[in-house]
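Input sequence (101 aa), recorded before submission:
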Amino acid sequence: MAKTSKINKNELRKKLVAKYATRRRELKQIIRNINTPPEERVAAQAKLDKLPRDSNPIRVVNRCLVTGRPRGNLRYFQLCRITFREKALKGELTGVVKSSW
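Predicted structure, token format:
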């Protein structure tokens, strides 16, 4: 089980990403646009730098829904490899069959 504080911190990051998503998108469009004057582009970069660091979607960590483990996650199931194996062997995951050959 992961520390509760780490799980909560990640949830706060998700909220910040959602809150600042439109603002970040608009600023990035201004920066990427070729026709934007250089002064305006620099101003947009400065505004982007002033946004909270945790509003960047890169900082959100994929965590296991059951244990909160940050490593070895399967995106489709949102479970870490250990929890996935336990649930798959118990038959709790639909469409997952243990292979044998």
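Checked by second reader. The helical segments are 4-32, 38-50, 81-90.
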